[in-house]
Amino acid sequence: MEKMDAFPLTVKSSEKQETLCIFGTGDFGRSLGIKMLQCGYSIIFGSRKPQMSNLLPKGAEVLNYSEAAQKSDVIILAIHREHYAFLTELTEVLSEKILVDVSNNLKINQYPESNAEYLAQLVPGAHVVKGLNTVSAWALQSGALDASRQVFICGNHSKAKQRVMDIVRTLGLSPLDQGSLMAANEIENYPLQLFPMWKLPFCLSTVLFTIFFFYCVIREVVYTYVYKKEDASFRMAISIPNRVFPLIALTLLALVYLPGVLAAILQLYRGTKYHRFPDWLDHWMLCRKQIGLVALGFAFLHVFYTLVIPIRYSVQWKWRNITATQVSLRKDNPLNTTSAWLSDSYLALGILGFFLFVLLGITSLPSVSNMVNWREFRFVQSKLGYLALILCTAHTLVFGGKKIFNPKSLRWYLPPTYVIALIIPCTVLVIKFILMLPCINKTLTRIRQGWERD
Ligand SMILES: NC(=O)C1=CN([C@@H]2O[C@H](COP(=O)(O)OP(=O)(O)OC[C@H]3O[C@@H](n4cnc5c(N)ncnc54)[C@H](OP(=O)(O)O)[C@@H]3O)[C@@H](O)[C@H]2O)C=CC1
Ligand SMILES: [Cu+2]
């Protein structure tokens, strides 16, 4: 008997088939029914019109709501909240039964209380458990559950919750206990959120792209057309994006590390770590991974755009022209070692920076970060991350200045877009350097170890 408790799932097949009841024969009810039948449960549907229900899975029985409820002590309500009212007539039959609320709403915080809490008020004698609302009918049927295997569960009655979690596990999903029914509101809002962590990086990159792109178009296309009467509009396809992408990648990479240094400054200023960060900083810290991944995406685009430069018509035309002019003028053009150095060093900085950038991206993937311990993860994300930031900043600095660098006069002119894109990375690096100065670093470490300032 003891063994049976320890391995309830393996023993189940030899037991009598467990019967579950599903209220509602709509899309979700049917998909869930099929899945549960496949997993060895026997299913009874409750419906308003049991005789009219077709399309139901083979092997399932259909009864009216009240009859169906009597057949099982676990009832899954695959019904929209707006139609819950009829359940009040069934309070007696539903007393002491487990009611699983799978419902979702159309808007975040649509009702004053969550659907599950509303259900608990309607049928006070039943044990309401919230769950399964994050899997879709389509995913249940097609088996495409890889990305959404996690199922949030909450409820006030712990045995009822355990029972539902066991069912969820048998369906091949992983239940995650979220506590009491008070968590239902959050669980119901979850499927309605659209990439919450990706919003900030997406908005940031859109704003940066618009600013940089239009500035470059005005400078390189409009200006050239107005003052030189030349059509340079083809530059909008590759040249300008390839200028804009690395600048966005660099700015976003710096924005991954900016909240960290801001937080350190705040801790130094307050003299304690036992104080919440402002909400905006908290949110920013939580989005760092997503910002970094978007930055990596832009870096990849920059690499691809750079690789195609030699096969571009306008570039080949320019090279041919230069060679032909040199031949016709019989002019010699000796190798300029300074230029060679500048060119090679910005390329080398770029390649190394990109390599570390990719490494950061790979280690942030859950499957990889699960394999390294916390210290190793910190080492890669922080130490190597800063190194990547230094290399990429240097790459931009050398490249931006390369074309306009005049070795004779030693004048170095950086175009405005580069200056703007370098402000944040340089600020982050300078602050980080200051924070690493021994006296400041010691205070910060003391604060982070939980010492209060006297
Ligand atoms: N579809 C999905 O992918 C997902 C759905 N959900 C949730 O599951 C629940 C069911 O969704 P879904 O199956 O898509 O919805 P459907 O509209 O397809 O089905 C709802 C079912 O509710 C029953 N019902 C009971 N009373 C009423 C009434 N007064 N008016 C209309 N229907 C009634 C009906 O069954 P009958 O005719 O047999 O009585 C109907 O088939 C919802 O709460 C939804 O939020 C959750 C996650 C995913
Ligand atoms: Cu570059």
From TrEMBL:
Which residues does the UniProt record annotate as the domain Ferric oxidoreductase?
247-392
Cofactor(s) the protein needs? FAD; heme b
- Which keywords, in A-to-Z order, does the entry hold? Copper, Endosome, Ion transport, Iron, Iron transport, Membrane, Oxidoreductase, Transmembrane, Transmembrane helix, Transport
Reactions catalysed, semicolon-separated, are:
2 Cu(+) + NADP(+) + H(+) = 2 Cu(2+) + NADPH; 2 Fe(2+) + NADP(+) + H(+) = 2 Fe(3+) + NADPH
Q: Which residues form the Pyrroline-5-carboxylate reductase catalytic N-terminal domain?
A: 20-105
Q: Which domain of life is it from?
A: Eukaryota
One Pfam family matching this protein: Ferric_reduct
Residue stretches spanning the membrane: 202-227, 247-269, 290-311, 346-372, 417-440
Q: Its topology with respect to the membrane?
A: Multi-pass membrane protein
Q: Which InterPro entries does the record match to this protein?
A: Fe3_Rdtase_TM_dom, NAD(P)-bd_dom_sf, P5C_Rdtase_cat_N, STEAP_metalloreductase
The yes or no answer to whether the keyword Lipid metabolism is present is: no
N-terminal signal peptide: none
Q: Where in or outside the cell is it found?
A: Endosome membrane
Annotated family: Belongs to the STEAP family.
UniProt-recorded name of the protein? Metalloreductase STEAP4
Q: Which organism is it from?
A: Erinaceus europaeus
Taxonomic classification: Eukaryota, Metazoa, Chordata, Craniata, Vertebrata
Q: Which gene encodes it?
A: STEAP4
